[in-house]
Amino acid sequence: MTLRMAVPNKGRLNERALELLHKAGLEMDINWGRRLYAAAENQDMEVMFVRAQDVPRFIHSGTVDMGITGLDLILEADLDVEWVLDLDFGHCRLAVAAPEATGYTSVEDIPEGARVATSFPNLAWQFFAGRGKNVEIVRVSGAAEITPHIGVADLIVDLVSSGSTLRTNRLVELDSIMHSQAVIVANPDSLQSKGKEINDLGSSVESVLLAEKKKYLMADIMSDTLPEVERIFPGVAGPTVMNIAGRDDMVAIHVVIDKSEVYDAVNSLKSMGAKGILTLPIDRLVP
């Protein structure tokens, strides 16, 4: 059965989503992102390129079996989809912000009946209702940050990453409604009928994410330093140790380490007299 997947057609999620699918082993045309539809060349899989905010509805309706989009859009749509995998990119937060000139420092300062401009009306309404605030939701499709300055709204609820856009528009963040990132989600019925295919793809992408945080380290070390090396580099299952032809005093080690450990690892090995130290990227890592 053909597995159908929805991917954002542009924006902050598109490029990285395609990169992960490619690294996971899907052979695809390099110009996938410029099409409306494409088929993988080496798997029975089809990809549709749609607006990120439409992905939840396509999955819920069964038009596609699974898709990649932001958690914020999933929660805003409030449709029946199943989580498959967090993708650890597209990090942002849905924040409440007001003009600096208001002097507001928290949500409690917001007066009753205040107008809130947002493209996330459901999440905004739930948040303010939970705080006991009666506000008027003003729906906008983009550029919410300008609305307080042109009299359309009194404050905004919008996605924030670094906060630079808020500062540029003289807005101050009052609170955070939720933190978001890109996720893979699936249709519940598809998980029943195509569960293996969906989980296989999720596992493949997960192996890429794990690999990107690791490095493969190789070195020739003095045999008498092996106990110390094993202590320093436990690796995924301990270092692999191999004999070196013609050398009884040295062995070769191979080990997987965190990227953040590479600097210290190389210097530690050098101080122990290691030779031929080499680090390599890893394409996929399945624990």
What is this entry, summarized?
With 287 residues, this protein is an alpha/beta fold. The protein is built from 9 helices and 15 strands.
Helix and strand topology:
Blueprint lengths: L2 E6 L5 H10 L13 E3 L5 E6 L4 H7 L4 E5 H7 L4 E5 L5 E8 L15 E4 L2 H10 L5 E4 L15 E6 L3 H5 L2 E10 L1 E5 L1 H6 L1 H18 L1 E9 L3 H7 L7 E5 L2 E12 L3 H10 L3 E6 L7
Parallel strand pairs: 1-3, 1-4, 7-8, 7-9
Antiparallel strand pairs: 2-3, 4-11, 5-11, 6-9, 6-10, 12-14, 12-15, 13-14
General description of the model:
The protein is an alpha/beta fold and 287 residues long. It has 3 domains: 3-91 and 181-211, 3-Layer(aba) Sandwich (D-Maltodextrin-Binding Protein, domain 2), CATH 3.40.190.10; 92-180, Periplasmic binding protein-like II (D-Maltodextrin-Binding Protein, domain 2, 3-Layer(aba) Sandwich), CATH 3.40.190.10; 214-280, Alpha-Beta Plaits (2-Layer Sandwich), CATH 3.30.70.120. It contains 9 helices and 15 strands. The protein has helices spanning 14-23, 55-61, 71-77, 121-130, 164-168, 188-193, 195-212, 226-232, 262-271, and strands at residues 3-8, 37-39, 45-50, 66-70, 82-86, 92-99, 115-118, 136-139, 155-160, 171-180, 182-186, 214-222, 240-244, 247-258, 275-280. The longest helix is centred in the C-terminal third of the chain and has 18 residues, at 195-212. The relative contact order is 0.14. The model has no long low-confidence stretch (mean pLDDT 92).
